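Give me structure tokens for this 93-residue protein.
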Amino acid sequence: MARRPRHRRTPDDREADWTGAVADPDVVAEARRRWKEEAAATDAYLAAVPDLGAPAPGGGQLRELLTLQITEYARHCGHADLLRERVDGRVGQ
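Here you go.
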């Protein structure tokens, strides 16, 4: 499967992260499908790894890479929660 290029902010395009962000159910469904596909590929990769202390593709240990990814994902979930609070006024308990 060919990967789409990642969007990165540049000095010339500070909103590149939001390029293509539209309130279209088909776009949302496609993003969710791609997310599930990536999650399945990650699960398959990790299932084949005998030891999380193994070297990660970019250096360090796979365990360290996973911890960083989990932390980053949790941070973004928190951001999404803040945005949702601004939209509907509900706050977490």
